[in-house]
Amino acid sequence: MAEWIGIGRRARRCYGFDEIALVPGTTTFNPAEVNTTWSLDGLKFRVPFIASAMDGVVDVTFAIAMGKLGGLAVLNLDGVQARYDDPSEVISQIIQGDVEEMTNLVQQLYKAPIKEKLIAKRVEQIKEAKVPCAVSTIPQNAERFGAIAQEAGADIFIVQSTVTTARHIAKAYKPVDLSQLCTSIKIPVIIGNCVTYDQAIDLMESGAHSLLVGVGPGAACTTRGVLGVGVPQVTATVDCAAARDFYFKKSGRYVSIITDGGMRNGGDICKAFACGSDAVMVGSAFAKAKEAPGRGYHWGMAYPHSSLPRGTRIFVGTTGTLEQILFGPAQTDDGSQNLMGALTTCMGTVGAKDIKAFQLADIIIAPSIQTEGKIFQQVQRVGMARKGAAEQPSNHQPKTKSRLNRVTK
Hints:
Strand order of the largest sheet: 6-7-8-9-10-11-12-13
CATH class: Alpha Beta
Structural class: alpha/beta
CATH superfamily: Aldolase class I
Helix content: 25-40%
Radius of gyration: 21 Å
């Protein structure tokens, strides 16, 4: 599988969403009759979409709205929701900030200490609406925040960093014992992020109930540029799904795979499921919802890092309600709305009655799939060739001094 890249060095060829396509099945189903449900340790969700734990995407209001629609949204316990009594003021500063000063501004705003009482308060606010509550934190805070969130009533706890391994070595601090954490916390634990077979096996053996797959593919993430680290999502998902299936045969315990990031539209999401995903975690698509706190902006979770940011603030625009983005009717031609409609239609087309059957869909390598016969769309920049809102001039972009200077030069 590997190719020579120089004397004595070989590299493996990996694939992203733009390089593959799904093949129609010999049997098709009525899209209205396919089953999209996914389960996590007894919790069932009819919408297999998870809103990413980004401060511009998920707050209490958004989490409640997502839960009432049958999906799940993750609240970031390391973000502004747990640092400020009124996080909306801080979010407004980030939205309105000068692009040239943004990194420094975000770093300063995220220096405010995390308040444990706010962790409990946010969880309780979500649970008062009688919807599932999921929260996320970095490994360093997992033991302390996990206990607080569980006591407050959280249903799912996520331990998430750029790359999380079961064997982290450090002398300056004590790494979290993931096996002990998964045993001590009595609610399902999702761990991420990972991209390799061996890494996935190790995390499953640590007791994880589910894994997040993806390093650097998110629209607001700059990890691949800053660190040069990452694996395209098609290959990463296939490899981790293979680990899931092997581990299930070995142990009898099923650990679900969640593709996290890199999916721009319904087509990418469908490909993620066909590659073996049980659910998908999405940021940009939900940042476009009217309910999102970022009002069309969002920023990477590693953006506030004090010395090496691995994210940026991007503008995706506000295109519709959360319900419209999930269930339609779509008023855009680029596949960014009615994501559930895209999923069920694709499942019906490839002949998949449920998600497990969808994971067995026929996949082909098709690098021309985005361009074949699409010359008019490309020239006119519509449909599949439409640029994202972040790349287009917009009256909603803050007219900062530096931006105006660039225009007049």
